[in-house]
Predict the 3D structure of the following.
Amino acid sequence: MRFTNSWIIQTVQINQPLLRQNYLPYSVGLLQAYAQKHAKNPGHYTFLPPLFERKRLELMLPLFQFVDVVAISTYVWNFQYSMALAKNIKRLKPDVLIVAGGPQIPDQASQFLLENPWIDLCVHGEGEKVFLQVLENLNTRDWSGIPGISFLNSSNQFETHPPLPREKNLERFPSPYLTHVFDSLLRSNPWQEWVALWETNRGCPFSCSFCDWGSATQNKVNSFDLERLEKEIAWFSKNKIQLVYCCDANFGILPRDIHISEKIVEYFKTTRYPKSFYVQNTKNATDRAFNIQKILCKSGLSQIVTLSLQSISQQALQEVRRENISLQTYRDLQIRFRKEGIATYTDLLIGLPGETYASFAKGISQVIEEGQHHQIRFYPVYLLPNAPISAPESVQKYALETVTQPYLAPFSSIDASEVIEKQTMLIACHSYTRDDWVKMRVLAWLYEILYFNRKLLQIPLLLMHGLCQLSFFDMLEAYLKEPHSSLISDLIQFLFHKANAIQGGETELCQGPISPGIRGWLSVEDFVITGITQSKAWDLFFQEHQRWAINLFKQRNIPTQHLNWLNQAFALAKMHFTMQISSSSSKFRQDYNLWQIYQGLLHAQNIALEEKPSWLEKSKKGPPFQFVLSAQEL
């Protein structure tokens, strides 16, 4: 029996490590805002400021000395830390009630609770109503009538209660921004750059099996009131929020999303906050999605647009229950965004069930040939606890093989942390072997290094495709199969070694310098480029790749007159890369109209090759080669 007037509650939502920014702990903020509005007697509950920073455990534990209830929101980047924290809190205060929710808590939680006995209650589904019911039953600790929870009872027997139906009237959930939940955090951290998570609706009408979103939200989309959203935008602007990260699964799916975009741009123009607005586009309603991104990018609130495909393989898409936009629609959107000067990128997953090495390699080639020259972001397939693909029947059906590896954030500092986060990666299944996965991972890195990151060889490769009809698939297959001289051979050998090491449980990242005097975690492509720079081997890099391209032309019986422009294309590529890291003005003489052809191909336009001498000029501060002058004009 408790004799004090108020229960003390500590919410915990530990951030993902970022360079200078922290996320406001939105999920636990929702719990607090709901409880303070709907509790029978709100004065019975005292909420301490949410904890969001990852600190050493011995520094965290004193904060829980007088706490009665701990509510923890988990995800892949904080799960292990959260469990270690909960374990130590329970040792410190055996009577404290520890409640855990979030995507990392499995819906089937019996094994989880046995492995983590310091967790008293698991919450499944929307947590606001459930958490308040838990609070209202603290005196008796009788959880028998509370839906959406799992626990071990007094006999150590597992009990689970079905979750509540999802709330259709989202206005029952107060905004933590508008109800002052985060005011104390803002006051006590005036130097902090904040990221605000934001929902304009909840739900996803799709059910991709690698994602836990559609399954978690039961395929219904419910919306928050527009007046509330406009007040939240005003709050973001007033409190100088750096980035608003929209959590909607499909922003643009509703007609009103155009108005929301215009409203946030209106505040940005007035106050210059928030400085960025990130959304995940709906894959349908393409005209609306295009107009929204045009609004955001033209204002400066967004710099790049996502055009997600995940895979080109119809077999893979069918097996994971994903429906892509058509390739014709994809191509049209690429052209429309390019005409507006808006950059796009495309997501592709490495190794979905149903994919093969051949379908993956041809898929990359096709995405590029359909117009994606800015960036492809390649992601391994991770198994999330509640995603359909993670279910035992899916694991058995698709013969899934996985590896557990450390979860680390790119550009984070190397920290001998007492707790290492983990993630589960798919590395083989019924449609491809472990060796196939290694080849897919290596191929993706090569595209990132050679074609996308810094555009190192984009000019000659795209010209080889456009002028000689060499497919990217054929060029990269030849690249992997042919013997090479030292630098390229070492590069390929390193990539295969790294991919095999990942299958053995090693992190995807590499240790390297992230700023002067500071070492941290780099992506493989950044690690390679940093290594070539430190070795002062860029001349050798371009020389070896030029020799490879010449040999490829000879093997394909391409007429020798093409070698003249090919050699100049590599010189142009080298100059283009050099100018990216130089602030000096530059000139480059081209004997053919290569730059014009290259720019045409980027915009899906074919320009005939001409032997037409001209100079390309770059000013000190401008983009590469903004002026093209004929030799006569100079």
Notes: The chain has four domains: 7-160, 192-302, 303-544, 545-630. Confidence is low (pLDDT under 50) at residues 629-634.
